[in-house]
Amino acid sequence: xxxxxxxxxxxxxxxxxxxxxxxxxxxxxxxxxxxxxxxxxxxxxxxxxxxxxxxxxxxxxxxxxxxxxxxxxxxxxxxxxxxxxxxxxxxxxxxxxxxxxxxxxxxxxxxxxxxxxxxxxxxxxxxxxxxxxxxxxxxxxxxxxxxxxxxxxxxxxxxxxxxxxxxxxxxxxxxxxxxxxxxxxxxxxxxxxxxxxxxxxxxxxxxxxxxxxxxxxxxxxxxxxxxxxxxxxxxxxxxxxxxxxxxxxxxxxxxxxxxxxxxxxxxxxxxxxxxxxxxxxxxxxxxxxxxxxxxxxxxxxxxxxxxxxxxxxxxxxxxxxxxxxxxxxxxxxxxxxxxxxxxxxxxxxxxxxxxxxxxxxxxxxxxxxxxxxxxxxxxxxxxxxxx
Length: 387
Ligand code: NZQ
Ligand code: ZN
Fold this sequence. Notes:
Layout: E1 13-16, H1 24-27, E2 33-38, H2 42-45, H3 48-55, E3 60-65, H4 73-86, E4 90-95, H5 97-109, H6 117-121, E5 133-137, E6 149-154, E7 159-164, E8 172-175, H7 185-201, H8 211-233, H9 238-251, H10 265-277, H11 281-295, H12 301-310, H13 319-336, H14 351-362, H15 376-385
Parallel strand pairs: 1-8, 2-3, 2-4, 4-5
Antiparallel strand pairs: 6-7
Helix pairs in contact: 4-5, 7-8, 7-9, 7-11, 8-9, 10-11, 10-14, 11-13, 11-15, 12-13, 14-15
The structure holds 5,6-dihydroxy-NADP (NZQ) and zinc ion.
């Protein structure tokens, strides 16, 4: 039992704090021709875009608008075409995880010879060149601002698949907490849940005596439990919002996952629920995680007890009781954020079970979890228990 061998290198520069968007001027080459990539317009309404435009000064730039939540291959390819035709040489994603993920795919696709969908079906491994890019994130949740992953959907084929490549770390991300004040409560709740589950999926596996990752992960979970409700209920409280944002970034920038087993089953099954039923990413995780904890409680026994004791402060010597309570507290935490945790509450019935299992089979997601033993049968039981 020990930390596993690992390499860790995160090259993204984080610029954190109020009034920091102006620093773009020093982060982007003076001669750059910049394509700003945005979503459905929230950054226009809350003033972030105009601050970005001012910070770009005399640089030539244009705006590509219209990246949707759960960004699609189809829309992203329109941006790819624009970049190819007009020779932009710097991309700036301004928005939530969807804008950031789309920007990552777009930058990898611009110079790709052949059908760019192959990038997605190969999990991003075949990206060999990119256009330099950075981010001004406006939604704390995914960690995309400081990692090299992204998730791209294709409507026509019902696919929602992850890409990952070391070339996809952004050069920089400017995190100004005040630019997130305009987020609807629902998106803050989703973001807290997403960051929470990212942490859990790198922590709640089996014990290897990884002292630093465990304590960091517990620190992030405790921060989300303490600061989450504050920032949800007081959206313009800088203190709690700043803490939440940094927790969300740290939850998925590679640090807590270095040297430890990982379990991304909740995310993988969740992506199928999003593509099939349009349920927000963060919500799919809240629906599935309590059922997964219950289903895998024998495999995860040691870590579930540690989680119950250290994160929820549960006491006593009856370990099964601690696990029961830890699972109940996890569900109650999600519900306290206003997130419903059963599929029926999203008007999804038992016909979902076969459909999700078929999607997982089609996507070769047949051996999930830290031990590869979340088979289709186990995933089926997890979805059934989530109805
Ligand atoms: O489109 P606009 O108008 O910008 O509105 C967005 C969108 O409707 C809005 N929003 C964003 N910032 C705002 C704001 N509204 C008001 N004020 C602001 N400051 O919020 C809505 C949701 O945005 P979206 O970007 O879709 O949400 P999120 O950041 O949760 O990203 C979700 C996507 O990230 C993927 C998910 O699968 C999903 O596709 N993930 C990416 C990961 C990664 N790259 O590492 C990991 C995650 O596990 C996740 O899978
Ligand atoms: Zn996530």
